[in-house]
Amino acid sequence: xxxxxxxxxxxxxxxxxxxxxxxxxxxxxxxxxxxxxxxxxxxxxxxxxxxxxxxxxxxxxxxxxxxxxxxxxxxxxxxxxxxxxxxxxxxxxxxxxxxxxxxxxxxxxxxxxxxxxxxxxxxxxxxxxxxxxxxxxxxxxxxxxxxxxxxxxxxxxxxxxxxxxxxxxxxxxxxxxxx
Amino acid sequence: xxxxxxxxxxxxxxxxxxxxxxxxxxxxxxxxxxxxxxxxxxxxxxxxxxxxxxxxxxxxxxxxxxxxxxxxxxxxxxxxxxxxxxxxxxxxxxxxxxxxxxxxxxxxxxxxxxxxxxxxxxxxxxxxxxxxxxxxxxxxxxxxxxxxxxxxxxxxxxxxxxxxxxxxxxxxxxxxxxxxxxxxxxxxxxxxxxxxxxxxxxxxxxxxxxxxxxxxxxxxxxxxxxxx
Lengths: 179, 228
Description:
The structure holds two protein chains of two kinds. Chain A contains nine helices and no strands.
């Protein structure tokens, strides 16, 4: 292909203004869908679970998210743990009946995860050192005592992590989290 | 005192069995290279066993030498990286940050030990081996450089367990996969800042040498020469 041929080829490919608008609109629509997918609403959870009610009864975060102080993941409790109390408490409520159904079938409740790093972030987060450093659960997860739904109250990005790491004098080495 | 991780490899003990290579692949989610990739020079082995032949047939002696990232104190790969994707961390490890790497290849070109490997494509494993990935190690994507990390995930875990139990890290508590897998115990890993550690004592042996030491890279992997 001669030089002018290349030029023509490129010129022919230039998008017209209206085409740019269309692609921008598509990108915007895609972004809207994406943000919609990221912010889970109460309707996405299989059971309308209220953190507020349970914490008001005196439960601590660690009672259900029992691995937070010893492992990398805080973990979502199994249906068996729900049934420890709900075998006797509130058995007439419709949402509690749903739990009993899952338990009777021997199936786990398909909770939707609310927090978590994107796969491509390559972050290896570990709860235990944070609990040992006496970081309050609310620092990263917001005030769940007032939350009726399981949803993301605090947005996590590298800035939020590093701000705290700087303040507390924790390691700022890349390999602390990314490896 | 801060740690300074290092390794010593006793070449008298190495039989070239490549158990370290297998252990490294399993631990660090390294894809299994195909003959086609080998033909185009695109294999990935964070740890390889070099062979050297001495003498003529039938009086041949084979020398084996496991070669991994030497975690140089004066690492030639570091100053050439335009994105600071490879740098020295406070524990003397030469760290590769995959998120930062844009794949310029400068580091691999500048590495005298040729222990850096590039992901030309997204890695694939023969079924069902993709199910046995180590969750503590990233699966690297296409377009980034990678290399031996001294099993940084095991170092992190060892330090985390020591912090949780309140007991100080003892020599030998942390073992990279290759060290753990070596049946001849030819490889030893430990803290070079601790003069009592096994690796420090081996590094001071009269047999101890370092690979291409004359380049001034100050590697932290010590090879104990074969006895004569």
